[in-house]
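User: Fold both of these, please.

Assistant: Here is the first one.
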Amino acid sequence: MLVTADQDEYCALLAADPSPDRGHHIHTEWRNQQKHIFVLSESGKPIFSRHGSEEQLVTLSGVMQALVSFVQDAGDSLRALRTGDRTIVFLSRPPLILVAVSRGPENVAQLTVQLSHMYCQILSVVTQSQLTRISEQRRNFDFRKLVSGAERFLDQLIEAVDARAVYLLHAVQCLRLEPGPRDAVITAIQSVCAKIKDLVFALLISGDRLIGLVRIRSHYLHPTDYHIVCNIVSSTESFRTVEGWIPICLPKFDSSGFMYAYVCYISDDCPACLVLLTADRESFHALSRAKTKIAEKMQQCGAAQQIAISIASGDYSVQETGVLDMRHFMYKCKSTAQSTCPAPSAVYASAAGRRRLYALYHIVHGRIHAARGPLKTYYFAGSREVVVGWVSPGFELYAVFEPHVTQQTSISEMNRLLRWIKDHERQIFILGSPVF
């Protein structure tokens, strides 16, 4: 059910101040935030808020819960509200309700996906079966106790969703690397881990960039689960200095139970992180020995040094593609769910510039994928830039050009970019799907 502002008087309450007894400056600042994310229980108790303190949002949480219950009692489900310049999106995942309030460029579908990422991140620390069992046994249970300590994961996820193309594209971005070192990493992992009992996935990552992935046969790592792992690793500073061992639920793989993640960086000279995911909770020492052997093999063949150089070099520039008048692009291969994009050009190098860039991408992506009329191509000409979206059975491509570029020229230049991507696919993508 999609409700507009003139249909529901409760909309204004959701855009109001969280606590009337606080100072005017404080709740004006709170209200003027670009985006709010809330998580509450079905009983209306606050669990998480992106801004402000949950304790001061009890009344607001009650309003949101009342809205959802009112529509449910009428035999429908509440999806979104619109009031003024705000879009308010609801995602009901019993026993939780997730709400996004945004003044940004995201449409309802994009905000719903962002809330889905939030829900999956919560499930990474408390499984769906645990949530269901507790809610059935204790109706008014304070779920903040279960997610305590995971707030940093949720905060960092929100920041990443707003700033990283991979979340908009539902994809994984690989570290740009020559085929030789990448193949050497895969070979090292396969040779060491092939006989380790109950090992399901082995990943080598740098931030949220994938360097290598080996999996057990017939099992695949969903991009959402991959981002959950990367988010937990990058949010936990202790992993940078000591070996880590952490239970983790991968909801797209199995939302009812935990796996166990061994986490360790390769060396001081190679800031890549090895993550070994297993179903065996007693295998820490075996995986620790495996990491040592993998690191030794990477050092011996020179792969560790090449990876360190690639990490230090950062993302490639759009100028390397040789495409004229292009400022930036993002590309997704649909068959592999892998994406690539260059570093933002000088026009978008600042924090404000990057926000503008991704706002433009959200607008064009939303129009391309509009439920009422999806498009294959979309050309958006503004006073400061031209943005083009192109979706085919095999790929999605979004590109930003100088403002004078015509539609015909943009398509011609995007075809040139596709040829460059094809020529460099072994460096920017992982081809094949290695198994133990």
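And the second sequence with its predicted structure:
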Amino acid sequence: MRRGTGEQPGKTPQPAPRQISQERQRITGLPLYFQGYLSVRHARCQEFRVYWTELRGTMLFFYDDKKAPTYSQKLDISALTSATNVYPDKKGSAHFILMLSNGELELQANDCEDGKEWRGFILTVTKLSVPPDQSLLPGQLARMHEVLKKEKERRITLTNCSSTSVNGKSPPNSTLTAMPVCFYAVSRQEAMEMLEKSPSCGNLILRPGSDSKNYAITIRQELDAPCLKHYKVMSRGTSYVIELEKQVALPSLQDVVNYFVTQTQGNLKPFVIQTCAAED
């Protein structure tokens, strides 16, 4: 898939090593449709922040650095209601706004052509239709039609997998399944700080394990006093094993998160920054 044309000012980006691409694919579990630099600003923020951004499925993944193997933030845009037209500013950058069910997100591309391309790919995967934008070039439209075909095939596969699961046959771990929304590529200390600073966002974080091959759950509960705990989640074949007094093996990381939520009767809630920002 071709890279987005946006380039971070003052830097000459180099192609990401193959192992980084493979690691991102493993972590996100979603096909890459488009990528490039984007500046992002939430409705209540004053300043833009520059990210290397990937459009995978109907998710935007934001990386602090082009070579970072794990994302720092992500945004589900499947419920996109609309996107404004791309408009330039005095410096030549191009802006457009995504209208989401839980708020607005303003995106800034390097120039209008880059902005229109980003907007086109986003609308293609969320609306399952290539936008009728006469300013898009034939090559851009051809790539969007290619992505549209892949996204439709992905949706069909997901539907078939869901049907199989309903019939009592849970499918094995699939690369089509995205990571849980409460997964963050942070350390144990960073996870603790996130839970302490923003309790309204939730109280359960899934994060990489210290060995980078497995995972961990960090939770924060308000008992007699705030209580922080950590649980190892080991990847074993097609299962994920929670290291408890009596080990629990589950078929996916989402099932691991669901296990903690159901076992605490909803007292544990996945930590989601988007939800927190929308409620502020």
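Confidence is low (pLDDT under 50) at residues 5-13, 162-177.
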